[in-house]
Amino acid sequence: MDLVKIFRALGHEVRYALFMQLITGAGTTSCCDAIAPDEAACCVVDFTRTLPLSQSTISHHLHILSEAGLVTQERRGTYSIYAVNEQALVALQFFLDEAKICRGIGSTHPIALQPDL
Fold this sequence. Notes:
Blueprint: H1 3-10, H2 13-24, E1 42-43, H3 44-50, H4 55-67, E2 71-76, E3 79-84, H5 86-105
Antiparallel strand pairs: 1-3, 2-3
Helix pairs in contact: 1-4, 2-4
């Protein structure tokens, strides 16, 4: 897991909004007939309903989230279906939990929060 890529991807307000929409399931009813009603996924058109952006701009930002490993992309016919990468979410949560512990310990373990270089 490349934390720099993840934080860089989430550091943009549009990508953060897209990611949060996928996590929370905002706008869970998809207009895409390739997505089951109970499936936690969206197609690009679903995002255009909630964000005042073009499909190409949304696709660009979703691609960056995908490259960072935060979302998965699956082709179903003519649609690209996006969902949260649950493994990446668990790993990110683990990192944040560890960061809280290290921060609480203080300066005796500063190397725990430094990236592998």
